[in-house]
Amino acid sequence: MKAMILAAGFGTRLFPLTIDRTKPAIPFLGKPLVGYVAEYVARFGFREIVVNLHHQPDSVRAALGNGSEYGVNIEYTVEHPKILGTAGALDNAREHLTDETFLIVNGKIITDIDISAALETHRSCGALATMVLKPNVKRERFTTVETIDGYVTGFGNYAHPFTEDEIRDTDHEIPIPLMFTGIHILEPEVFDYIPRGVYSDIVPTFYSPALVQGRKIAAHVTEADWHELSTIPRYLDISLAMMNDGRHVFIGSDCSIDGSASVRDSVFWDDITIESDVNLYRTIIADGVTVTSGSHFENAAIVRAEMVRHCKDIPEKALKGYIQDENYIVPLN
User: Fold this and answer.
1) Are 218 and 202 contacting, i.e. CB atoms less than 8 angstroms apart?
2) Which of 56, 73, 124, 128 could share a disulfide with 22, CB 3.0–4.6 Å?
């Protein structure tokens, strides 16, 4: 049984951390994010992996290689000249996936969701597809997935934070919405719904029409840990939450940190120089950055300014930053 890891996205909300790499290729506590996903599916016996590429494709190839480091064998599909969307990506890889049931996993997540349990749900239901869902307890901005008796029935709007009326209303239990984890199990028949060679997304192209036709879409609901690293603040928060050193500071390779520097709750990539009397709190310092003596930063991501100077366009969804000396600073609040 094969798995496909989706790794073609632009990572615009993670800019400027994604100037020279795509989102799944950014380092996460010393390992490419997509490497965690490859290891994750390998733990459940998936050895044949398809990875789709579009934006900064060489960054994913450099991160994963042939997959041997992560216990898998990887084949790549390239979306060119345009990205194809979550359903178009399957169309572009259909020659690898049409033989049997297959797994799709988003390349930007960290999780311990039990794929074997989801497969058991899928097989026992005889479903055309199974979506792995999770209660959106914090009501983060994810699309709501509607279910009845273990089956998906439709898709709602984005979840929203509790309103003041809901907070005051203590007499009624407010239902917790379900959100999609980016993990789903599909039968090859899904390709009957997906057009050839065009951009298309999986919900309007497959899921919604299949539901209208009365097809079984199973809902596997889990309480397991799951994190999506789609924004810079989320990347930092999840990095800090997963550190086990007690100091909440991760330092990559070939970093030089002056003994007078104060560093707390921060993530350093590689080849970084921190000079004397620097104070850093809740920062992400990207490859090759030098933080000069006496500098103080908090709640910020910092990359080399030359990378931004040579960047044609700053994505509209990116957090706004500014150039200071040889660095580009992005405030996170």
Assistant:
1) no
2) 56
Q: Fill in the amino acid letter for 195.
A: P
Token pair 């090759």 is at which residue? Answer: 288
Torsion-angle region of 168 (φ positive above 0: left; ψ -120 to 50: alpha; else: beta): alpha
Please report the domains of the chain, with CATH numbers, ordered by start residue.
3-228 (3.90.550.10), 244-331 (no CATH)
Q: Are 87 and 202 in contact (CB under 8 A)?
A: yes
What's the pLDDT tens digit per position in 252-274?
999 999 999 999 999 999 999 99
